[in-house]
Design a protein that fits this description.
homodimer, Arc Repressor Mutant, subunit A, DNA-binding, 252 residues, 2 domains, Four Helix Bundle (Hemerythrin (Met), subunit A)
Chain lengths: 252, 252
DNA sequence: GGCGCCCGAATTGCATGCAGTTTGTGCCGC
DNA sequence: GCGGCACAAACTGCATGCAATTCGGGCGCC
């Protein structure tokens, strides 16, 4: 009924490279690594017990996924998407995940339903824990759904874009915890089980839209963008004390 | 009105790596490199005047895009997506490109309209030329549209998935030329200019759907899959002359 | 005290070398 | 002839070395 081919691994599982990728992805998603954080090749290599070659390759992968920014001759850093990029990412994500639930509606096996339910239960349990874990679990719920389509391409795109959205969350969103209403996850599962594709798509749309708007309330120039623009309004305070130290405070 | 940020380059433009990527992408899209074609690192390096390190990195990039298959300790090959993967790619492509035209409807500048028209004219002119060029131009039309959204992420995904679709075309489609009805391109432009988002989305959907179904008529086990399965029906011709030489004729 | 310059340390860009794996081919027994 | 084995060539996986560039701190000058 829901059978597909699915190689599942493209370049993913070159062993050591993918280990590093996974570790970094997770660190980023849990906000242990903030946007802008530096990722020197040999520190990475040393940390994971490999040479720079491998670390470099891993960074290349992550850059291709949009999680890391690679500038020539410069230390790689965790990507800091602009507000508009964040908005675009969410727009794409909405379309992709609507596709996911459309394909999934009424086709979930009992085992899959159980797996989803278990996951959401885990999300509930993690409520008391750190935000980091909640966010990770919420994201993984969406990726888990994508996996169930058995479409490797869809999995890849949903994963990527979900990770990117996480990144923006840590940039533009206040730490108001539990950004993903767990009940909405449950509602989506229910619609899928019932086989109501339209309902599931609508729920998913609403769910993601609310996450997006809750996070990206406004272009909030305060965070994440350019520092010089931020300070522009203050530039004409000529004769005052406490002048900002530009070169020192420039991003961490 | 249609202003956006847009860095445009992620890891793309590490110079030599991206040169190789572009060359290979183009070779693949023009079917000069068939699915399954071998891509040894040092041949590539020699051809482009760089060391294996660079060639390797380029292959990594392309693998991340799904154009190349990287198997451990084996020569990299041009990817050969399964029929189902091809179908999935087209499904995703439809959603993404609907998003593109939705964002673009009524927002095209005069210059952009001119550029699009010029491109379609070029497609028309290329009708007499080789199929390779037609296919490339048709694909580039879609990528050009994506570019006009000023959303780097959207550009990346549309490009990737469009390339993948090209790949499947060369696998599963007969060489019936002009796979992309040029008139449909013109119609889409017209709808965009008129600002009729719904119409443009519908046209784009129909356009891609027709391309997909024209190409992917059926699971066609004849091409692209497994050779042994293909030859199975012929296997019982026991006592005849001219037995197929398996190991020699294997692809290429 | 603040600002800019300069130089050493840190870091990347890239090629090459070596070890391990795969692939292809010729040879031998049947 | 035909199938299998073994060896050699080809190729990848990875680390390391060297040159070029950037980063950061200290020093002198204003």
């Amino acid at each position: 009924m829901a059978g597909r081919a699915g190689t599942g691994k493209t370049a993913e599982s070159t062993d050591r490279v993918s280990v590093i990728c996974r570790a970094l992805r997770r660190a980023i998603i849990e906000q242990a690594l903030e946007p802008g954080a530096k990722l020197p090749e040999d520190s990475l290599g040393e940390r994971f017990g490999v040479s720079r070659t491998i670390a470099r390759h891993a960074l290349g992968q992550l850059a291709a996924e949009g999680l890391v920014e690679l500038r020539r001759n410069r230390i790689a850093v965790v990507a800091t998407p602009s507000w508009q990029e964040a908005r675009d990412a969410f727009d794409i994500r909405i379309e992709l995940e609507r596709l996911v639930v459309r394909q999934l509606a009424g086709r979930l096996t009992k085992a899959q339903i159980a797996e989803l339910t278990a996951h959401v239960d885990a999300e509930d349990r993690a409520r008391d824990g750190t935000d980091a874990v909640s966010i990770r679990l919420a994201t993984e719920f969406h990726i888990l759904l994508a996996h169930m389509t058995n479409s490797p391409i869809l999995v890849r795109y949903v994963s990527e874009v979900a990770y990117r959205c996480c990144l923006t969350l840590s940039l533009y969103s206040r730490p108001h915890s539990s950004e993903c209403a767990i009940n909405e996850h449950r509602a989506i599962i229910a619609a899928l089980v019932k086989g109501d594709a339209a309902k599931a798509m609508e729920l998913m749309h609403g769910h993601l839209d609310s996450v997006a708007t809750r996070a990206l309330v406004a272009p909030t120039p305060q965070r994440g963008r350019d520092l010089l623009d931020i300070l522009a309004p203050y530039a004409d305070e000529t004769g005052s004390e406490r002048v900002v130290k530009l070169p020192k405070a420039a991003r961490r």
